[in-house]
Specification:
Layout (H helix, E strand, L loop, with lengths): L2 E5 L2 E3 L5 E8 L8 E6 L6 E6 L5 E3 L7 E6 L4 E6 L8 E7 L4 E2 L4 E5 L2
Parallel strand pairs: 2-11
Antiparallel strand pairs: 1-3, 3-8, 4-5, 4-9, 5-6, 7-8, 9-10, 9-11
């Protein structure tokens, strides 16, 4: 069974940065494209970005330039670096696969507030 544990979220002020991690298990990590998705309070889930098995990345237009997804295949871990956080980035962030359709973990809360 594919599983993951996300971490690294917290309460931050606008303009600060966070690095979220997703430690996975139960599948051959290096052979899967992986995604980050998020869900803000009262809103539908939103795809944030994808990293393919070859390391290429794609991002939603709303986050391009501030969010960077990376992976460490040796540690079965997915990352997302979020810079210049904005209030509208407040959400629970999940790692996922299958083009963002399958969440792997329970998420990590990011709250941006002054």
């Amino acid at each position: 069974e594919r599983q993951a544990v996300e971490s690294g979220g917290g309460l931050v002020q606008p303009g600060e940065s966070l690095r979220l991690s997703c430690v996975t298990s139960g599948f051959t990590f290096s052979q899967w494209g992986l995604d980050w998705v998020r869900q803000a309070p009262g809103k539908a889930e939103e795809w944030v970005g994808t990293i393919n098995t070859d390391g290429t990345t794609h991002y939603a237009a709303s986050v391009k330039g501030r969010f960077t997804i990376s992976r460490d295949n040796a540690k079965n871990t997915l990352f997302i670096q979020i810079n210049d956080l904005k209030r509208e980035n407040t959400a629970v962030y999940y790692c996922a696969t299958d083009g963002g359709r399958t969440r792997l973990g329970r998420g990590t809360q990011v709250t941006v507030s002054s």
